[in-house]
């Protein structure tokens, strides 16, 4: 029986198949294991040699076969904190990434935390709330807190919000699409500060992507206005009563003075 020779077309077809298998990671386990060993070793060499260009390119490649545990160990060993944050992000280990940002002095800035939180989706809302809550409380205790609160509002609403000083007078409803559940965000903010929750509702109430929720948001905003006015009224009532009493006491004192003056005048006139 004669063996058929492979034609050039067959060769090209086979080559294309191999490339497809490699690109889609549909390769033999033994080959995959070999790639893991080689690429992990290469990364170690790049880190030892301080070849940042190749190391970063390697880490940015989503398809690299490096062993995750080895990558983590090597990045820690070489104090490559920023790269480790990126590694955790790709592994969906967001809590570890945020803890690293929070605890490393060179990374621990409000901007870095907000930037990382902005990459998360609605499924990560509890994690977002955990890290944003102390930031909001800190901002509310500061006298000049407009920029911090503005950045936090951007996180929940979008990136097209104008900056101060005319923040309260400008239309912010044209910001980017809302990606977080507005009711959950509102309830979270209300537990911290009602005025900030109202600002959030004001910002999103006219956004068209709310669809059926838009009416609920508007109703919530109306309720919050009513509740806040009632609170302010109750808070100001004792002050109003005290002021009224002060005026009344002053008037009585004036009357006594006038009466005393009148009697004294009559006494001298007689």
Can you describe this structure?
The chain contains 12 helices and no strands. With 270 residues, the protein is mostly helical. The protein starts with 7 loop residues before the first helix and ends with a helix. The protein has helices at residues 8-23, 29-48, 52-60, 68-77, 81-90, 94-103, 110-117, 125-141, 146-157, 182-192, 194-204, 213-269. The protein folds into 2 domains: 29-108, no CATH class; 123-250, no CATH class. Helix 10 (182-192) packs antiparallel against helix 11 and helix 11 (194-204) packs across helix 12 (213-269).
Q: Which series of helices and strands comes N to C?
A: HHHHHHHHHHHH
Domain tally: 2
Low-confidence stretches: 1-8, 14-19, 160-175
What's the main sheet like?
none
Query: Structural class of the helix and strand makeup?
Result: mainly alpha
- Overall geometry comes to elongated
